[in-house]
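The protein record filed here.
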Amino acid sequence: MNDTNFVICINNAEYPAALELRKIYQVIPDEVARDNNLIRIIDESGEDYLYPNAYF
């Protein structure tokens, strides 16, 4: 079974080139990031980066 998760961007104030408001992004599991209130997603560059949880 595939446990792929997705989130919707609700804030891109500090990253307007990397994140689009109201766009759905794929989440990459990262327990260390989660423990630090961050989320790893594949952004507009096509690479995975960390962003604050509050942005999604």
User: Anything to note?
Assistant: The longest strand covers residues 24-28. The chain has one domain: 5-55. Residues 5-55 form one domain.
